[in-house]
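Priority: medium. Attachment 1 of 2:
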């Protein structure tokens, strides 16, 4: 930022405030202030971090001085700021909160006033900013080799330093017991030197990656690659839909296209919907490219995440792999953005700034003139419709690589099963597959042992006191859990309503399914993959490694086993309750069911042996299941599009959801009525063509102790929608106890 005579700057504050602020810059700080640096500023009775947006014109009023400058170099560039401004405008979020979301967590300073431990006085405390890891490095001096008087641990440390050149303090701590005293004596004698350096925390420091050569592309893959590579070479924005059946080699197309981008001196960003998929992608990419790769996702420690971000910022990497937050990776000279499994709802951030990384990939690609590849076997209805309309370039991969066939698939009517988990057909198939040495996957998208419990005497249903859901029984922990707020209680012996002892467990989760599989096949090696068994770092990778090495015969899991993984040994997939998601009160329920069933089906038969899929459902004739079983995406698309057009849902409209919540029921109901009335008034004032539905209680009417109401907006164009919502947010001033969130393009309405 150029120095200004006025010394006034515009600053965004990371707080829910729909405005920016002006501050004056003292003379001695003016050379340090530039666009993109953080400044420490007074704000009311506290001090907070702000982001410098640029110089500002005098306002005529008295301005507060900034306290200090926190960075030597800008944290964001002008092009990144333009991206942040677009997000703030589209998603109706304050710019300061958007910038905070884009930057690594924990770097901002904040002061608060209040009593400290043992001190009742009004004391200022500054928090945050602990980000950089410094470590001491020791090196032997030139004359150390000739010293023979050193004994014990000191002698061994000295020998190690002479042989290896230098060693960090953490390395010496791991090699020698209590090295502090010997190191102190060596330093005092001048036999070693020490210096302190910043070190990176590498999330994959312990991993070993075997080099891998590029695989030959088939005709369809080559055609897709050629079109993407051409767009990269031209340096223009080109959005693609890479629509390939499961096992068609989409990742290999990505790898070839990224290699081409690197040859052109450009960088690449790869988004994956789940942290669980990241290790597998990292393995393939590191095996192919070895160096210059960074990883960004919430599963890293704050320190690792900050270090990875700084490596990117400093231009030390050319490839970034990550979950939705990686869309903010500070890569320059972007050549390609890949959104793998673009249909996944997990690309939507539901807390704070409610952005969708899939959509932002297209926005960023357009701003930076990069190719954007949306890849999926089951694209979103809206994505495929855009491709049919010519808004995306369609790239089809209609067959599996190496001539492998899609799995044989059958739908089994589960209505006659009563309380059994398996139909006789699925049970027989599991036994037969085990006898032939094949691996099996069993998919059930419910974890726990039983999904609800009921008193057989009085009918009392055990529900979460904080959420509008039943409690799920986890037998391993002997407790009942709410999967929304983590409330739990011990397994009750008597009913709290009638003191009856006849408490029944109903419904099946993955834990119960595991028990039944072990009972059916006592000699099988059975594992379970859900959020209970994958807790902790590396949980997903550990189970997948065992499956890949052939140490698991049957893997039971929730939707995390359905997404993007390659299991060459799996020859049988059983979908235990395929239509559970069909009954959700959301217009996308059929689409979600088709996607989920199709994706888990695609895990079968990806190796040399043919695959088989058995789908159990209570609605076996539903078009979502029938089309999935037939591997007929376009047929499903046509069926679903007819419903969407008749009901006026996307892609034939744009949606926004105004969510209101409160710990008390009556105030939020009243606020919802007032919000809906104001929205209708704003529609009249702005003359916008927007349909306003509601207010109504949310399908999940209570979550984490908060009562929830909704107002749904539908519009034929985004301009009318923005007119109404922008005006609404300007005038809406509810009680302080009411939380209001405007969700643009919601991915669910629960």
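Attachment 2 of 2:
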């Amino acid at each position: 930022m150029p120095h200004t005579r006025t010394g006034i700057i515009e600053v965004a504050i990371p707080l829910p405030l729909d405005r920016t602020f002006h501050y004056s810059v003292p003379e001695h700080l003016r050379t340090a202030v530039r666009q993109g640096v953080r400044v420490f500023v007074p704000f009311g009775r506290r001090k907070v971090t702000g982001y410098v947006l640029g110089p500002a014109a005098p306002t005529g009023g008295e301005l507060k001085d900034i306290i200090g400058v926190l960075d030597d170099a800008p944290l964001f560039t002008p092009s990144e700021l333009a991206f942040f401004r677009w997000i703030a405008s589209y998603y109706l979020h304050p710019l300061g909160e958007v910038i905070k979301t884009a930057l690594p967590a924990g770097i901002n300073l904040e002061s608060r006033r209040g009593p400290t431990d043992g001190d009742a006085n009004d004391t200022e405390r500054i928090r945050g900013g602990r980000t950089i890891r410094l470590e001491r490095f020791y090196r032997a001096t030139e004359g150390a080799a000739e010293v023979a008087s050193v004994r014990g641990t000191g002698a061994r440390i000295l020998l190690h330093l002479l042989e290896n050149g230098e060693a960090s303090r953490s390395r010496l701590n791991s090699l020698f017991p209590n090295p502090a005293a010997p190191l102190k004596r060596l330093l005092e004698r001048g036999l070693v030197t020490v210096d302190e350096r910043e070190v990176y925390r590498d999330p994959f420091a312990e991993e070993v990656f075997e080099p891998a050569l590029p695989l030959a592309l088939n005709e369809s893959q080559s055609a897709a690659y050629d079109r993407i590579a051409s767009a990269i070479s031209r340096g223009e924005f080109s959005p693609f839909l890479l629509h390939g059946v499961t096992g068609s080699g989409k990742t290999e197309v990505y790898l070839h296209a990224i290699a081409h981008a690197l040859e052109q001196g450009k960088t690449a960003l790869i988004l994956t919907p789940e942290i669980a998929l990241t290790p597998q992608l990292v393995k393939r990419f590191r095996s192919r490219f070895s160096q210059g790769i960074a990883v960004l996702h919430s599963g890293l420690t704050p320190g690792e995440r900050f270090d990875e971000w700084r490596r990117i910022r400093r231009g030390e990497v050319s490839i970034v792999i990550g979950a939705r937050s990686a869309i903010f990776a500070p890569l320059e000279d972007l050549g390609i953005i890949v959104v793998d499994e673009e249909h996944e709802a997990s690309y939507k951030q539901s807390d704070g700034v409610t952005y969708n990384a899939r959509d932002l990939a297209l926005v960023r690609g357009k701003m930076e003139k990069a190719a954007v590849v949306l890849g999926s076997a089951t694209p979103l209805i809206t994505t495929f419709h855009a491709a049919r309309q010519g808004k995306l370039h369609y790239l089809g991969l209609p067959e599996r690589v190496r001539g492998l066939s899609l799995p044989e698939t059958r739908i089994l009517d589960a209505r006659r099963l009563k309380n059994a988990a398996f139909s006789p057909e699925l049970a027989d198939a599991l036994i037969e597959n085990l006898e032939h040495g094949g691996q099996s996957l069993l998919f059930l998208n419910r974890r726990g042992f039983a999904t609800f419990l009921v008193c057989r005497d009085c009918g009392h249903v055990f529900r979460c006191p904080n959420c509008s859901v039943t409690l799920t029984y986890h037998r391993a922990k002997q407790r009942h859990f709410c999967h929304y707020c983590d409330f739990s209680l011990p397994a009750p012996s008597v009913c709290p309503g009638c003191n009856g002892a006849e408490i029944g467990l109903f419904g099946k989760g993955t834990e119960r399914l595991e028990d039944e599989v072990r009972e059916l096949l006592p000699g099988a090696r059975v594992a379970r993959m859900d959020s209970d068994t994958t807790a902790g770092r590396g949980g997903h990778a550990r189970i997948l490694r065992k499956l890949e090495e052939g140490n698991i015969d049957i893997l039971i899991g929730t939707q995390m086993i359905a997404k993007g993984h390659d299991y060459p040994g799996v020859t049988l997939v059983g979908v235990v309750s395929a239509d559970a998601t069909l009954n959700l009160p959301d217009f996308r329920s059929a689409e979600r069911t088709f996607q989920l069933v199709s994706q888990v089906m695609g895990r079968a038969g990806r190796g040399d042996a043919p695959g088989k899929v058995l789908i159990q459902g209570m609605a076996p004739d539903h078009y979502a299941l029938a089309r999935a079983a037939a591997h007929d995406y376009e047929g499903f698309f046509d069926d679903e599009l007819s419903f969407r057009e008749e009901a006026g849902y996307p892609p034939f409209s744009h949606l926004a959801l105004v969510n209101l919540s409160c710990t008390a029921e009556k105030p939020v109901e009243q606020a919802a009525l007032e919000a809906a009335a104001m929205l209708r008034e704003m529609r009249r004032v702005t003359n916008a063509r927007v349909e306003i539905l509601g207010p109504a209680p949310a399908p999940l009417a209570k979550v984490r102790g908060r009562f929830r109401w909704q107002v749904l907006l539908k519009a034929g164009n985004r301009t009318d929608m923005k007119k109404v919502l922008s005006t609404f947010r300007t005038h809406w001033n509810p009680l302080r106890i009411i939380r209001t969130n405007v969700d643009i393009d919601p991915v669910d309405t629960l």
